[in-house]
């Protein structure tokens, strides 16, 4: 589904993609495993009562954007790298398989393509590698991009989606024009913030528009049918005939 106003704007110059549950479906179970690992960390490393953990984990996620940001805001002290190692290090990455269809679609898009995730750079690299999409993106805006790791012991709050401040920081870091950028995310609240920041927005994983979304895209595999505007003014090559560029290392933008 698409809002009529979506196709009446300027030519698009950049595509900003969330990663988890956007580039691959939620049905992989990575999200659920991640929550399980966060709850385990809260019990074992932060000594939070087991009976309180599930509700607290979800409440902090809802209020602060990520459970990690919420724990920090409440005054819990922990090392960021240790947290990410515990939460992401034990994920069932083997459930993520190479996606050649999506790879060809991404490579055929003429715009700049950037990842914007709340996750750390190690997780982003692992996911992109498992999906076979490393060479499809110019760079990655991740946890380390928005938060100085050396400040993990300070009282400074964690910056993350769906904070408007985080969205504006990503726009500045990537040096993009929001009016000429499409933002893809599976989270309704991130989509709302993206729209508030002036971005064109696509909610992924559903056929129903959410507040702030210009387009609802059930699967990234349907992007060419749903958003032909991305390829406007380019030679309409079939995905099978896309010329492969030389391998380009995806770098963390800072």
Task: Describe the fold and architecture.
- This protein has 254 residues and is of the alpha/beta class.
- Helices cover 36% and strands 11% of the residues.
- It is built from ten helices and seven strands.
- The protein has helices spanning 30-44, 53-64, 67-73, 80-88, 100-108, 121-131, 143-146, 164-174, 188-196, 223-226, and strands at residues 14-17, 112-116, 139-141, 181-185, 200-204, 215-217, 251-252.
- The protein has a seven-stranded parallel sheet.
- Helix 1 packs across helix 4 (80-88).
- Mean pLDDT is 89; it is low at 235-249.
Task: Output the keywords.
254 residues; alpha/beta; 10 helices; HAD_sf; HAD-like_sf; Pyrimidine 5-nucleotidase; Pyr-5-nucltdase
What would a concise description of this structure say?
This protein has ten helices and seven strands. With 254 residues, the chain is α/β, with parallel strands linked by helices. It starts with 13 loop residues before the first strand and ends with a strand.
